Amino acid sequence: MHFTAQLLLSTPLLAYACWRDLSARVIPDSISLALAGVGLAARLSVGREAALLSLLTAFLLFGTLLFCAMRGWLGGGDVKLAGAVALGLSPAASWDFTFLTAMAGGLLGAVYLAGPLFAPRLAAARGAGLLPRVAAVEARRLRRRGPLPYGFAIAAGALAVLAANPR
User: Fold this and answer.
1) pLDDT at residue 91 above 90?
2) Which GO terms describe its molecular function (predicted)?
3) Which is nearest to 96 in space by CA: 10, 167, 44?
């Protein structure tokens, strides 16, 4: 599978994962399974050894993130999504993916920390369209100290690495 095909197949799956994470704070297992399938096919097209190395790297990342999830630092859907993405990347690209995801997560966290400053304005614009409605819901989640939709950070890291052609 050519890297462009992997990017084209992964992009809508990651976008849907973001939508579901934002709307319900749930990332469906079917998205992670589909991404794992696309990624495994991409790595097998490079060679069997490449696929085995990616499988090992994805397993190590999954295990590390599972530990974080067991401590309540990350959601289970985020763990599965990140593991599925790593399955389609080389070990070096998985490192880049992890780093870029952490950076995107930091930016996401900063936006959410700044959210209470903008929440009154966003709530006032409630009837203007989809974006203000989503912002109003997120403002309520912020006030209740709800979880971040970390699927956005995972998708950002994945798309950045995939767009850079990580062979």
Assistant:
1) yes
2) aspartic-type endopeptidase activity
3) 167
Structure tokens of 100? 């870029």
Determine the Cα–Cα distance for residues 142 and 147; give it in Å rounded to an integer. Answer: 8
Which residues are within 8 A (CB) of 43 and not within 5 positions of it... i.e. 6 or more apart? 50, 51, 54, 55, 87, 88, 89, 90
pLDDT, tens only, 101-144: 999 999 998 888 877 676 666 666 555 666 666 777 777 777 77
Q: How many CB atoms lie within 10 A of CB 69?
A: 17
Of 74, 54, 51, 55, the closest CA to residue 64 belongs to 74
| Residues 81, 17 contacting (CB under 8 angstroms) | yes
| DSSP sequence for 102-166 | HHHHHHHHHHHHHHHHHHHHHHHTGGG-HHHHHHHHHHHHHHTTPPP-THHHHHHHHHHHHHT--
* Domain boundaries along the sequence of the chain: 3-105+149-163
Structure tokens at 83: 């593991």
